[in-house]
Structure to design on (162 residues):
C-alpha cells in the first residue's frame, strides 16, 4: 500500500493541515479578520494618532472594520465546508479535519469570485481612507505606517502553498 509517508505528502493532507493552522490562529491573514479591533488599537497606538488626526483615523478604522466584516461573511460559507473535529468526539480528544465535500467547478469558481470581489471592495475602501489619513500624518507617522501596514493590509487569507 501507499504508506504513511505518501499519505502525509498528499496535496489534500497538506491543505487540511494548512486549514487547521488557519483555524488555530497561526495564519496572520485570518487573525486580521478575526482580531480587527486589536489590530486597530495596536496601529493607533504605534502610529501615535493625535486628537487632530482622530477624524481621519476613525474613517480608516471603519474601513478596516467593514473590510473584516465583509471578508468574514464571505469566508464563513467557504470555511464551513471544512469542519474541525468529528461528531461525538470526547473532550480532550485530538481534533482531526474531516474531508471537504466535493464541489463542482462552477461552485468553486463562484466562491472564488465572491472572495475576490470582497477583497477588491475592501482594498478600495481601505485605500481611499488611508489616502486621506496619510495626508494628515507626520513624516515619522508615515514612516511607521509604511513599516507597520503590509501591502495587503486587510486582505486576509494568505496565498495557499502546496
Amino acid at each position: 500500500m501507499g504508506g504513511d509517508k505518501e499519505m502525509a505528502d498528499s496535496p489534500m493532507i497538506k491543505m487540511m493541515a494548512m486549514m487547521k493552522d488557519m483555524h488555530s490562529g497561526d495564519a496572520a491573514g485570518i487573525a486580521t479578520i478575526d482580531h480587527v479591533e486589536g489590530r486597530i488599537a495596536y496601529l493607533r497606538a504605534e502610529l501615535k494618532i493625535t486628537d487632530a488626526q482622530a477624524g481621519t483615523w476613525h474613517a480608516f478604522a471603519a474601513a478596516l472594520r467593514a473590510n473584516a466584516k465583509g471578508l468574514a461573511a464571505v469566508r464563513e460559507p467557504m470555511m464551513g465546508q471544512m469542519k474541525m473535529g468529528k461528531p461525538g468526539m470526547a473532550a480532550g480528544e485530538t481534533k482531526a479535519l474531516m474531508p471537504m465535500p466535493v464541489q463542482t467547478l462552477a461552485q468553486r469558481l463562484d466562491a472564488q469570485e465572491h472572495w475576490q470581489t470582497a477583497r477588491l471592495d475592501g482594498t478600495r475602501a481601505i485605500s481611499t481612507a488611508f489616502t486621506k489619513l496619510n495626508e494628515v500624518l507626520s513624516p515619522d507617522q508615515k514612516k511607521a505606517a509604511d513599516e507597520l501596514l503590509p501591502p495587503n493590509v486587510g486582505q486576509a487569507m494568505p496565498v495557499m502553498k502546496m
Remarks:
- Confidence is low (pLDDT under 50) at residues 18-28, 82-87, 157-162.
- Residues 105-136 form the longest helix (32 residues).
- The two ends are 23 Å apart (CA to CA).
